[in-house]
């Protein structure tokens, strides 16, 4: 009897060690993608000075990454479920590393833009697969805590990116900005080797190639149009043709997925209440994040005449809040259920934006901006990890890859649509009144996200039995 107990204890220790490895691998993989998306803005002026191309080059260095990432993320989620999360993660890490090295030695702006597109493809493999690996390894309360930790470190990437990038650009070279991520990539690949975990794959399931093609066009066309409409206008065929073809492809994609034998996106996952309502809340919350973060930084520079660096640092409490509080709220969500946090979090975040209605023509950061930012940071930290856990915990672990991809696609497309709306809300001139309108719309989206969560989200009925993380 005693040996049996000892054997059980050893087994539990092995499982705990394996879970820790999985969590660190997932964090490193997503850290790479998030770091590169935040570090790039600091390097853009230096890239333009050396390689030429002006503003158009700077836009496409950013947009090439966003377009490939957004259009391929559903396909990447499906690949993760069919071929295994570890295989897809390994391929994504290697491709991202190779593309980063090639960017660092780019001979021209055109070559750099193409390689940024390759980075976007690799990032599409990394983000849903890293989160799917957590979902398939942790359940219940342990899953919520793990997602909270993952969220905190992802936020740390956004926080570290501009700081590291600024140091490299100012003291060394913009080219070295792109090799920063080689260290976490190498560590993640080594840990995947140490993990020696076999992938869980669904037997007999194949890639839905027609669905994949329709999904790529359906996401890529509208994303391209939303990004470039400011340059060409909606009346240009360069914009309305990709947009119309993309929407038609999305309609065809849904029709095809209903009849396909092995659909890339099994529409049955939307029958899970928390998955459907959680993604609706995601759309509202991430739309608010996109327009709110954008308008604050722009207003502080253009109207309040803050230096660019100081304006960017205005939102620093948001990143710090996510770093230090996401793990806590992920743990609390696992213990008490996500509904309370998904309801109160967005409403508190919306209240933070309402506080910023006191901002006027002359801005005092400490009294007019910081209080609202701090309240918003608290609400957002309360929201993100429970939201992700509720959505992905509601579907089978075998579908975690496509579930994570859907949630990421919803967040990104909602952000792009919301950003495109800013021009309509501002109505031509950014002043105090138009700024207040955008702030009010941002608060409204956040509060609606909380209301949607209250109406639609349900706490899991089964108590947690999973071993804790760490």
In one word, what is the shape? globular
CATH superfamily of the largest domain: MFS general substrate transporter like domains
- The end-to-end span amounts to 28 Å
CATH C-level of the largest domain: Mainly Alpha
SS-based class: mainly alpha
The number of helical runs is 15
Query: What name is given to the CATH topology of the largest domain?
Result: Growth Hormone, Chain: A
Radius of gyration: 22 Å
Provide the β-strand percentage band. under 5%
Number of domains: 3
Order of helices and strands: HHHHHHHHHHHHHHH
Query: Quick check: average pLDDT?
Result: 82
Question: What secondary-structure arrangement, pairings included, does this model have?
Answer:
Blueprint lengths: L1 H50 L2 H30 L1 H20 L4 H29 L2 H32 L10 H14 L13 H24 L4 H23 L13 H30 L5 H6 L2 H21 L2 H17 L9 H28 L7 H27 L5 H25 L14
């Amino acid at each position: 009897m005693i040996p049996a107990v000892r054997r059980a204890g050893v087994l539990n220790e092995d499982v705990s060690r394996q879970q820790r490895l999985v969590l660190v691998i997932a964090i490193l993989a997503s850290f790479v993608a998030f770091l590169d998306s935040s570090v790039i803005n600091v390097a853009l002026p230096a890239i333009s000075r050396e390689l030429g191309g002006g503003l158009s080059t700077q836009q496409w260095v950013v947009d090439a990454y966003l377009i490939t990432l957004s259009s391929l993320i559903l396909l990447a989620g499906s690949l993760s479920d069919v071929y295994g999360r570890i295989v897809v993660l390994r391929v994504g890490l290697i491709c991202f590393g190779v593309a980063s090295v090639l960017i660092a030695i780019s001979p021209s702006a055109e070559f750099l833009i193409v390689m940024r597109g390759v980075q976007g493809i690799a990032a599409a493999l990394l983000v849903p697969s890293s989160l799917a690996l957590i979902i398939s390894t942790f359940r219940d309360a342990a899953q919520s805590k793990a997602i909270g930790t993952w969220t905190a470190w992802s936020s740390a990437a956004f926080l570290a990116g501009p700081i590291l990038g600024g140091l490299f650009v100012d003291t060394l070279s913009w080219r070295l900005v792109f090799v920063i991520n080689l260290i976490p990539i190498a560590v993640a690949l080594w840990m995947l080797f140490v993990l020696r975990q076999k992938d869980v794959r669904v037997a007999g399931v194949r890639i839905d190639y027609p669905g994949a093609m329709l999904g790529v066009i359906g996401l890529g066309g509208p994303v391209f149009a939303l990004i470039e409409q400011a340059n060409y206008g909606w009346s240009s065929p360069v914009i309305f043709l990709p947009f119309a073809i993309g929407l038609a492809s999305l309609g065809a994609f849904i029709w095809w997925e209903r009849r396909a034998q092995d659909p890339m996106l099994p529409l049955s996952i939307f029958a899970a209440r928390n998955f459907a309502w959680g993604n609706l809340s995601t759309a509202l919350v991430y739309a608010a994040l996109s327009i709110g973060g954008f308008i604050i930084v722009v207003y502080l520079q253009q109207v309040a005449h803050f230096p660019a660096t100081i304006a960017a640092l205005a939102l620093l409490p948001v990143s710090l809040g996510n770093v230090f509080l996401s793990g806590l709220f992920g743990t609390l969500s696992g213990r008490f259920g996500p509904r309370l946090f998904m309801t109160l979090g967005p409403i508190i975040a919306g209240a933070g934006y309402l506080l910023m209605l006191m901002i006027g023509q002359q801005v005092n950061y400490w009294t007019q901006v910081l209080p609202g930012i701090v309240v918003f940071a608290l609400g957002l930290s309360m929201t993100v990890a429970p939201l992700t856990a509720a959505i992905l915990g509601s579907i089978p672990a075998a579908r975690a890859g496509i579930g994570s991809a859907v949630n990421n696609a919803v967040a990104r497309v909602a952000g792009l649509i919301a950003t495109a709306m800013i021009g309509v809300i501002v109505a031509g001139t950014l002043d105090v009144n138009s700024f207040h309108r955008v702030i009010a719309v941002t608060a409204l989206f956040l509060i609606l996200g909380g209301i949607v969560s209250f109406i639609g989200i349900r706490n899991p009925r089964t108590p947690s039995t999973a071993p804790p993380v760490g």
